[in-house]
Batch of 2 targets.
Target 1
Amino acid sequence: EVKATGRGHFRFYRPQMNVDVLSRMKLETAMRQALEQGKFRLHYQPQLNLLSGRLIGAEALIRWIDEERGPVSPGQFIPLAEESGFIVQIGAWVLAEAVRQAVCWQQAGTPMLVSVNVSALQFRQPDFVQRVAQTLSEAGLPAELLELELTESILVQDADEVLQRLQALSSLGVHLAIDDFGTGYSSLAYLKKFPIDKLKIDQSFVRGLPEDESDTAIVVAMISMARALKLSVIAEGVETEAQRATLQRLGCDEYQGFLCSPGVPPDKFAHFLQALR
Ligand code: C2E
Ligand code: MG
Ligand code: MG
Ligand code: MG
């Protein structure tokens, strides 16, 4: 059987797809219940200055352990949540929870930049900026302690609308970072147009350092571009001392990755905060 999948595109229908659709529907239902029942958690991955080794922030990463399925990775359920629109509700929870945590850290005398992933659909909500402002003011967190990680897919949408929104967030004092930089299909023109603070070099470019010449060339170019545009630059997915040392030599500002720590629950993160006291 052949099915239309959009204008001029056809693919063969396989009985397997019934199973896929069913398991997706079940996962979707489980995801909604997980939010209702408070089953999502946030883990925090330390971000460090490359020169001093000092802690400068933490990226919030969502975690879900389902009773039946065990740990479900965000790579699995976030795309599904994006397709169904449920990411808007999840995203609101993540933002509120991360902001609440940042307030705790601030009150404990160790104020820390907390970095939150924002999905394209979430960003596109007409009231997104207002929600961010409201979340901050209700919790009493200075906007300067919040960073939003945006993907390039967000920036390729209607330029005027995006620009307005980014300017509004920026004037609140919120930091803006481009996540997975270099993996999207957007033009680089947005870097001079939008009030971006930071580029996050995707881990796919970090992996090959220092041996892979192409990866090294790309990372060098990204850092020099960031310098020229007065953006700061952080490398993601740093797993080895050789990668860290290379990034330091190339003039990268910050890093995060398993070399220092994976994302950990707040009680374990306290260990990194001690160094700030
Ligand atoms: P991301 O924002 O680029 O996050 C980095 C991912 O790389 C995380 O995977 C992190 O655990 C992992 N990682 C960190 N250091 C290393 C390393 O040294 N080596 C390797 N191999 N991996 C490392 P995770 O937590 O599975 O998240 C995957 C993606 O799911 C994230 O990519 C982000 O796009 C999305 N995501 C996670 N939490 C949220 C959230 O709260 N909201 C939204 N919208 N998306 C989220
Ligand atoms: Mg991220
Ligand atoms: Mg990333
Ligand atoms: Mg990524």
Target 2
Amino acid sequence: AFALAGPRDLAGRHVVVSAGGTREPLDPVRFLGNRSSGRQGVALARVAAARGARVTLVAANLAVPPPAGVDVVPVETAAQLRDAVRAAAKDADVVVMAAAVADYRPASVQGAKIKKRADRSAPAIELVENVDVLAELAGERLREGQLVVGFAAETGDDDGSVLEHGRAKALRKGADLLVVNAVGEGRGFGTDVNEVVVLDGAGQVVATAGGTKDDVAGTVWDAVRDRW
Ligand code: CTP
Ligand code: CA
């Protein structure tokens, strides 16, 4: 008997979830990072496992513990995350990119700690672009029929609303689903409550969810299941 009664509608599926935020080293003691806790990705992994899936969680610097019963692959950098996700994706029915992946990394990593300068000048950090893992997965499809799902945190600005930015990103990424999270204006960050819109690859709304990160995870897996 199962402790939690509920649908086992992901049984027989292998799902890969990336979660957390990457760290890009500058020297042995410093990195460029972001504030992602990994809570949404961990919720996705936990809910998928509860619904019967085999789960691989590619975990970048999580601030919360991973759920029991999932395979955890720890990574630090965007390059390590890319390698780990691609390795797991060869055998996956769906890849969900919930991680906050650094767009850029320092062009070079110093082998020794960078010292403060005696002449009081400030160093400049040169950056180079990281591979867009989501767009690459969507373009390649490492396994036939594999679904690829992205996440995007958006604020509205002078160039468009949350939904307009989300639609443009959905078209640009080529993923099957893009989960757009409205942040700012008292939503998203630092709260346990999210408000999301799920778009398909053409930018059409296929679902909306408000509530906890577990509620959002449930809505995402429903949308994935409906595509299978
Ligand atoms: N992503 C990725 N690889 C990167 C950057 C982002 O796979 N190098 C993925 C994220 O995991 C997320 C999706 O792309 O699923 C959207 O990330 P986001 O930062 O919103 O998109 P960008 O295209 O980087 O756009 P911007 O940062 O300018 O909003
Ligand atoms: Ca980005």
